[in-house]
Amino acid sequence: MIIENNTTISYTISKNINRNMSILVQNGEVIVKAPWYLKKDKINEIIEDKRKWILDKIKEYEDVMVRKNRAIKLLGTYYFLKTQYANICAPQINLKENEIEIILPNKYKKSNEKEILKKLISKMYKVIAEKEVELAMENARKKLGFAPENYEIKEMKKYLGKCTNDKIILINPEIAMFNKNVINYIVLHEFCHLKCKNHSKSYFELLSKYEPDYRKYEKDILEYHF
After folding, report:
1. Is residue 17, in this structure, part of any structural domain at all?
2. How is residue 209 annotated by DSSP?
3. Cβ of 89: how many Cβ atoms within 10 Å?
């Protein structure tokens, strides 16, 4: 396992009698086929040299799984969805190390599973967003010294955050997809709109004063608007 810049590459080693070493990325898992005599330090060195290629391959797999609705992003980490049916009254969601186990009642077998999962995940996002946004709101209030009259978790198309003309901050529950640093940034971004409505020079001066690295976080949310 390699850890650097908060990115972990976990891999399985398969020893063989061949002289050559190969790296495979199958179903999101990294498999290293290495000669029996190759030491762990040398394998780590080779993995590190191939880091970008490996991460790109893992990302490709995750993107495919997301498109197939078999994986979701939660607080900055991808989790694979595992569904099963059981003799229960209501759906259950269990968060595990790298997967989200969703147990559905047997009576749902004839229903549209894709739509059911979509609704369950939306509810989960909202619950997590309510908790994380509350913390981010308090952090922003302490940092800037002011706060909105009110805020609301609300579903919005292509918007993660919005500050209304009445100075009420709206936050999309899909914010739960991103890590805590990005969530803190999004909330701080909207706080700054309480003082400067538009993205003017004054606005960015205020934003950069309290979050100098804001451009780094905006790269994570390019597909959304403010």
Report:
1. yes
2. H
3. 7
